[in-house]
Design goal:
The complex is a heterotrimer of chains A (224), B (280) and C (310). With 224 residues, chain A is mainly α. In chain A, 75% of the residues lie in helices and 0% in strands. In chain C, 74% of the residues lie in helices and 0% in strands. In chain C, helix 4 packs across helix 6 and helix 7 packs across helix 8. Classes of the chains: A mainly alpha (224), B alpha/beta (280), C mainly alpha (310). Chain A: Belongs to the binding-protein-dependent transport system permease family. HisMQ subfamily. Chain A: InterPro entries: AA_ABC_transptr_permease_3TM (IPR010065), ArtM/GltK/GlnP/TcyL/YhdX-like (IPR043429), MetI-like (IPR000515), MetI-like_sf (IPR035906).
């Protein structure tokens, strides 16, 4: 009944999901860094940076991810020559997909962190300023560490959404789960079974992540 | 309260309008699925392949497939204004026929044994070959030259896989959503060659914006016998279409269609194929 | 423009901010110049590629019908998902285990699966087991995928909205002898729905964006897909992408503006029991939801009390 699963070797079922995991982890790390920087820009004393941060978030959030991912391939790679240091298109597509996912997800990470910054009591920042800390010191040493602990929940949801969003990378030929599923559906008759297998795969990926990070967020929550 | 009323009314309006359009759509297909003299005829074509089947800015359709389909429809007793063209994507063609959504399909539809299990074919009406499109100053002249070069095709295409398997295992394959995206890459130099049927490639190369920039390598990597797909078992229509195709060739309307659609691309087409003869 | 994160700038800080601004501006300008220059070099700025967008035919033949399909799918999905989401959201709050648990399972299951897979699967389902024509099928599949996913997200929104109401509301309702269904219908829901409306409207942004998934994978003739038909005629791949991205931005900007207008209006009218949740309070329930970030975006979660810094 499940023999069709072993008929595919480019990629294999496990290989496809491993690709999904790699896309998720690498884009997750990237968007955490870029999203934090964007959040810092949005609360910074420099008006131009604030403006840039706001514009970036509002523009990127309103474009379909599909458009962004395809644009990394057709625009960045083909026109601007951003090949991400890879001449092999399989590797290049993988790296470009990560770039696109980071650019997109960072906007959501930024908003989550910004709302986290808002949860830190005013007194914390006031005290930090009172002892003479600069903006970047206040942000790095006082505000962000507390903010991060309170946004683990929302960030977990962003990460889960990111896991599911990696399926869009199939549009530029990255051989991940959705790519393999489409191939299988076109070749096999057992559509329901194929759908169930892939749905199960994603449930396996996302549910434990959600549960673990939910537990972590409760554990690390700042008790006030 | 006011707001709730307003939103309820808006929702109702949306639902109504949508169900209305949906019903309209269903009704149409019902009344048209049966063949009849005075009715409209639905024909499946491609919408996004210049030279074969392309939706024009004025809403009309152009291309070789379209010309053939129009001629055949005329022979079947339908005027041009009775034809309704429907987009049939590659993956949808068998289903659209089986369900009777369209009367026949002329959409770069190669006759293969596998497809013959599901649909009947009239024709063939064109013999195409898998080929490469390269820049006009390119040195690529053989399929084996593609080793180490960047080759472009669409996601899930079999022609690119053929090249990789049979000729150039070291070709670097880029998969895009559509062929026109590959052409943009070919123009900017991101890829060195684009592979699919030469008829399709010729259509792109003949486009205004690309004139003189690209050439066909002239390789015959495979034989693609384009047929007109008809619902399985509808022998009557197959025979009628075959007669129409023969007449089209005899009246030189076939040559004119080839010249009109492929002429500018410098495409060396094969002579009109004999009905029922499939070149393997 | 003062903020609690930094003091009002003195002369030195002003100078420093100015220097940072200038450097940052220079970097941005350099980037813009690089983009412009490269596009020019690659011939992407040629007027022939952009000219079609100044002619009405490009719009009436390709883009507007695509936009209409996008809006149609989004509207249908919204209209179906909303009641379904409310149903599951309320079911999850039921006192009965046998109602609560299945509802929770359904919601969690469909939230865990990518919309793209739901659409692919729905497409196959309609193909094999129903009589939907191949013209209508992509629309059905897209709407089904969107409904399954967004109904479960909206269920969470509704649940969070009801839970956010002060306990006193349901206690008072019970005290005056209302039944559970009466409490839900006349006390809790009206307040919760009012409070969640901006988030619900913002969810439409997500739905609009997600219709694009149907264009790439199952050939639904929405905006992104009709862009392909257009680009094959005019041979303007990159410009068409830029224009379509702009259309999405404008469309979604209108939607988010509508959401904030609606929210302001509700806050001002202060009907029923008074307090309508403000944007900040909404963020407590669903920090990311307000910006319309479910779906292919991040999902919301709970946040404790918030104050505004910026």
């Amino acid at each position: 009944m499940f023999d069709f699963l072993s008929d595919y070797d480019n990629p294999t079922l496990l290989g496809a999901f491993w690709m999904t995991v790699k896309l998720t982890l690498l884009s997750g790390i990237g968007s955490l860094v870029w999203g934090t920087l964007l959040a810092a820009m949005r609360v910074s004393p420099v008006p131009l940076m604030r403006g840039f941060g706001t514009a970036y978030v509002n523009i990127v959030r309103n474009i379909p991810l599909t458009v962004i991912i395809i644009f990394t391939s057709l625009g960045l790679a083909d026109i601007f020559g951003v090949t991400m240091g890879a001449s092999d298109f399989k590797v290049q597509g993988f790296r470009l997909a990560i770039l696109g996912l980071v650019a997109y997800t960072a906007a959501f990470v930024c908003e989550a962190i910004r709302s986290g910054i808002n949860t830190v009591p005013l007194g914390q920042a006031e005290a930090a300023r009172a002892i003479g800390l600069t903006f970047s010191q206040t942000l790095r040493l006082i505000i962000l560490p507390q903010a991060f602990r309170s946004v683990i929940g929302p960030l977990a949801n962003v990460l889960i959404a990111l896991t599911k969003n990696t399926t869009v990378a199939a549009a530029i030929g990255v051989a991940e789960a959705a790519y393999l599923m489409k191939e299988m559906i076109e070749n096999e008759a057992q559509t329901v079974l194929i759908g169930a297998v892939f749905a199960f795969g994603f449930v396996v990926l996302t549910l434990p992540t959600g549960l673990f990070l939910g537990w972590l967020s409760k554990r690390l929550a700042v008790k006030r | 309260m006011k707001l709730r009323k307003a939103s309820a009314a808006a929702a109702a309006a949306i639902v109504l309008s949508i169900t209305a359009t949906a019903c309209g759509g269903d009704g149409d297909s019902d009344s048209n699925s049966g063949s009849g003299g005075g009715d409209k005829i639905k024909i499946g074509i491609k919408y996004d392949q210049p030279g074969l089947g392309q939706k024009e800015p004025d809403g009309s359709f152009s291309g070789f497939d379209v010309d053939v389909a129009t001629y055949v429809a005329k022979e079947l007793g339908y005027d041009a204004d009775q034809i309704e063209f429907v987009e049939t994507k590659s993956a949808d063609r068998e289903n659209a026929l089986a369900r009777g959504d369209v009367k026949f399909i002329a959409a770069t539809y190669s006759i293969t044994d596998e497809r013959k299990q599901k649909v009947d074919f009239a024709g063939p009406y064109l013999l195409a070959h898998q080929d490469l499109l390269v820049k006009s100053d390119s040195k690529i002249s053989e399929a084996t030259d593609l080793n180490g070069q960047n080759l472009c095709s669409v996601v899930g295409s079999t022609s690119a896989q053929n090249v990789k398997n049979d000729f150039a295992p070291k070709a670097n394959l880029k998969e895009n959503g559509t062929y026109s995206e590959c052409l943009a890459g070919l123009q900017s130099g991101a890829v060195d060659a684009l592979t699919t049927d030469d008829s399709i490639l010729a259509g792109y190369a003949a486009q205004e914006q690309y004139k003189g920039k690209f050439k066909l390598a002239g390789l015959k990597l495979s034989n693609e016998n384009y047929g007109i797909g008809v619902k399985k078992g509808d022998t009557e229509t197959v025979n009628k279409i075959n007669a129409a195709l023969e007449k089209m060739v005899k009246e030189k309307a076939w040559d004119k269609a080839v010249a009109d659609n492929f002429g500018p691309a410098n495409y060396k087409n094969e002579p009109a194929p004999k009905i029922g003869v499939i070149v393997k | 423009m003062s903020s609690v994160l930094y003091d009002a700038p003195g002369p030195r800080a002003k100078r420093r901010n100015l220097i940072i601004s200038v450097v940052f501006f220079a970097l941005l300008a350099l980037l813009v110049w690089f983009i412009w220059n490269t596009m020019d070099e690659k011939g992407q700025l040629e007027w022939a590629l952009w000219k079609p967008f100044t002619q009405s035919e490009a719009w009436t033949t390709y883009l507007l019908p695509g936009l209409a399909d996008t809006l149609k799918a989004a509207a249908l999905a919204m209209v179906i998902a909303l009641p379904l989401g409310a149903f599951f959201g309320i079911a999850r709050l039921s006192d009965h285990r046998w109602v609560r648990l299945p509802a929770a399972w359904v919601v969690e299951f469909f939230r865990a699966i990518p919309v793209l897979l739901l659409m692919l699967f729905a497409n196959e389902f309609y193909d094999r087991w129903t009589n939907v024509t191949s013209e209508q099928r992509p629309l059905y599949a897209v709407v089904t995928g969107l409904v399954l996913y967004n109904a479960s997200v909206l269920a969470e929104v509704v649940r969070a909205g009801i839970l956010s109401l002060p306990k006193g509301q349901s206690e008072a309702a019970m005290a005056i002898g209302l039944r559970k269904s009466q409490t839900m219908r006349s006390i809790l829901l009206p307040q919760a729905v009012t409070a969640m409306l901006p988030a619900i409207v913002s969810q439409l942004v997500v739905i609009v964006k997600d219709t694009a998934l149907g264009g790439v994978m199952i050939g639904f003739t929405e905006l992104l897909n009709s862009r392909a038909t257009m680009a094959s005629y005019y041979a303007n791949v990159i410009p068409s992408f830029i224009v379509v991205a702009l259309i999405y931005i404008v469309l979604n900007f209108i939607l988010t503006s509508f959401a904030s207008w609606l929210e302001k209006r509700l806050r001002r009218s202060k009907k029923s029991t008074g307090a309508v949740l403000s944007a900040e309070d909404m963020e407590e329930l669903n920090p990311a939801a307000v910006g319309g970030s479910f779906g292919t975006g991040g999902e919301g979660g709970g946040l404790p009390g918030s104050r505004t810094y910026t």
